[in-house]
Amino acid sequence: MSAEEVDRKYNVRPFEDVHESKFKDSLPIVKLDAIDLSKYIEGPEGYQSRVELAKILEKSVTSYGFFNVVNFGYDPEKLERLRGIAQGILELPLEEKGKYLASVWRKEDEPPVTKEYLGGERGHGFKPKGYWPIKDGVRDSITHYNFRHLLEPDVFLRDIEQHPDLVKVHAQEIIEWYHHIHNDILHKISNLCDIILGLEENTIWKRAFEVEPENPGKSAGAYARFMMYEPYTAEESAKAGKSWLRGHSDISGFTFITSQPMLALQIRDYYDGEWKYVDHRPGSLVVNIGDSMEFISGGYFKACMHRVVEPPQDQKDHNRLILIYFCNPKEDTPLNPDEYRSSKLKQLGLSKSEKLKDWDDITFQQWNFAKGATLGKKNAEEEDEIIVYGRNIERWHHFKTAVA
Ligand SMILES: O=C(O)CCC(=O)C(=O)O
Ligand SMILES: [Fe+2]
Predict the structure, then answer these.
(1) Ligand 1 touching residue 285 (CB < 6 A)
(2) Residue 220: is its pLDDT beyond 90?
(3) Which terminus of the chain faces fewer neighbouring Cβ atoms within 10 Å, N or C?
């Protein structure tokens, strides 16, 4: 079948975003700072332009841990089209989804996760709705489809038979978007982080994120996800306390999310500990720091707690679609600031000999495994202070230590 025939069969059409909420002005909202990548100029002559952007970024990554990226050099029409394709994939009939499950139907029935068996959160394919228990018998209302190995197209395309037709016929478009995020947007952002930390540009990129095609196992372990949230019934909403996705920090280095107008993503304000909605900036990506970048920066950057909740009354009967990219560092990336010899962190006393005495020397692989074992096992909004390798599994402690 041609791509057009497959699209027709599965009713691929533009995803229609919900209208902005009329309650917006009366709700607690954070407007994130934006990094305008059209102002990022390469080469020695562009250095000052990058320093200016790094100044804006430093404020964001050391407080909210969230920022927007705008003018990131990708055709908006292509991205719109991809959102339509994502909607088509996530709407496939349940029996079709059943053939491409990342794991099983319910978390409780899942075999232990290993390096080879990645489970419903991380394996490629569908995590169906109702996989996670949320609260008081209510189960999640999120369908997601994970892609792995997009940075190694040969591997991805070799296994293409393991994906439904809609993924097969649109594989190139999916690969293209995620390559752009990784090799262009992420590369620039990680160079700006080098500038913030007083490192030579490309330090973080090479150590943590550069793709090594000749050495696939050593490449950055990023994975991509299409994600659709469907509304709860009134009864589910009452029981689950409006929680769609419990509070957490990401394991990743950085996470990239397509911005959309439904007020549902909330961050726990670093300054006052209150949950606030992330405002929608049209045409932007919402980017957040994950644990890995927090640790690489010795805790200077903040992997903020965030969650997804039911939106205001006038948006709540609508689906919410996002395209997300969890950019994990390479497995052997050290999550210890001392390894990077940052002048900035030295100045701040963020080293193992000063403020970080409790931190064990670990790699990304160790953290990924330790935290991965806790995923999907807690109730909505349960605050836990689990310490592993001298670090908190979730970043609930942030605002207690915040300096305004
Ligand atoms: O839906 C969102 O906007 C964020 C989802 C999220 O935080 C996650 O999947 O880690
Ligand atoms: Fe997240």
Answers:
(1) no
(2) no
(3) C
| 394 within ligand 1 shell (Cβ under 6 A) | no
Distance of alpha carbon 342 from alpha carbon 347, whole angstroms: 9
Number of folded domains that form the chain: 1
Closest C-alpha residue for ligand 1 atom 6: 307
Question: Which atom of ligand 1 is closest in space to residue 225's alpha carbon?
Answer: 9
308 lines ligand 1 (CB under 6 A): yes
pLDDT in tens, 147-185: 998 998 888 999 999 999 999 999 999 999 999 999 999
Tell me which residue of 42, 265, 232, 35 sits closest to 139, measured CA to CA.
Answer: 232
pTM: 0.96
Shortest-distance atom of ligand 1 to CA 229: 1
Query: By residue range, what is the domain housing residue 54?
Result: 3-402
The residues with which 321 forms a beta bridge, in sequence order, are 228
Residue 31: closest CA among 71, 69, 72, 67: 67
**φ, ψ at 287 (rounded to 5°):** -120, 135
Distance 101 CA to ligand 1 centre (A): 20
* Ligand 1 atom closest to 286 (CA): 3
Give the tens place of pLDDT for each residue, 79-100: 999 999 999 999 999 999 999 9
Distances (CA, A) of 247 to 13, 177, 266, 268, 347: 32, 28, 9, 9, 32
Rounded distance from Cα 83 to ligand 2 centre (Å): 19
The DSSP secondary structure of 15-63, one letter per residue, reads --PPPPPTTGGGS-EE---EEEGGG---SGGGHHHHHHHHHHHHHHHTT
* CATH assignment of the domain containing 86: 2.60.120.330
Which whole-number Å values give the CA distances from 163 to 102, 159, 337, in the listed order?
Answer: 11, 8, 39
18 lines ligand 1 (CB under 6 A): no
Q: Is 310 in the pocket of ligand 1 (CB under 6 A)?
A: no
Cβ of 322 closer than 6 Å to ligand 1, yes or no, is: yes
